[in-house]
Structures are given as structure tokens and as C-alpha cells.
Design a protein that fits this description.
With 115 residues, this protein is of the alpha/beta class. It contains five helices and six strands, in the order E-H-E-H-H-E-H-E-H-E-E. Helix 1 packs across helix 5.
Length: 115
């Protein structure tokens, strides 16, 4: 299972679900909740968090809040119609490595930093 922050383009959620991955989408379940609550839900679901919001870095590194992994997507230059395909491919290929790590994917390079 993965948890998608509401900042994540919904085409990514749809593409992951189409690939058989269970995705808890904040936008569907609890829109507008604070980031620390999003992170707490992901932790309690034992799910890595997918986000496009850099603020989660502060929660993990500075405040040291517990998590099961953060996948920060920086896909601003990727065309909307390609975001889901590209993000789902990289997440599925590296899912085991993304657990308990802080990862950043910019559309070309995936950087994984164990935490």
C-alpha cells in the first residue's frame, strides 16, 4: 500500500491503482488535513508517502517524525499526460528500496537516501 498526499497529481494515483497497487489517497479520504497528520496516517498504515510537497523533508529530517518512506516527486516539467506513467513506472521498479527512505524523483533521476 502507498499513501498519496493531496498534492500528488491524481493521474499518478490512477496509474498505480491500474497496476494493482493499493493507494490511499488523502484527497479522497481526508482533504485539507495538515502535513503532520498525513505523515501520521501513512505511518500507521505502514505505507510509504508519495508527495509533491517539499515540506515533508522538514517533518522527517528536522522534526524527526516517524515514517515508512517519503517519495518526493518533482515532475513540474513533465507533461501532465505523462506524469502518471513515468511516476508509476519508477515507483513500481524501486518499491522495495523506497521503504524507510527519503527519495526524490525529478523525472529523470531517482535519488534514494535511507533514513
Amino acid at each position: 500500500m502507498l499513501l498519496a498526499d493531496e498534492s500528488v497529481d491524481f493521474t499518478i494515483v490512477e496509474k498505480l491503482r491500474a497496476q494493482g497497487i493499493e493507494v490511499f489517497a488523502i484527497v479522497e479520504q481526508a482533504p485539507s488535513i495538515p502535513d503532520d497528520e498525513v505523515l501520521s496516517i501513512a505511518f500507521h498504515l505502514n505505507a510509504p508517502l508519495i508527495t509533491e510537497d517539499k515540506d515533508f523533508g522538514e517533518l522527517v529530517f528536522r522534526l524527526k517524525l516517524p515514517h515508512r518512506g517519503i517519495i518526493l516527486l518533482r515532475l513540474g516539467s513533465v507533461p501532465k499526460e505523462k506524469k502518471g506513467e513515468i511516476a508509476a513506472k519508477i515507483i513500481l521498479e524501486h518499491l522495495d528500496e523506497l521503504l524507510d527512505a527519503f527519495s526524490v524523483f525529478d523525472g529523470k533521476i531517482l535519488r534514494i537516501r535511507p533514513v
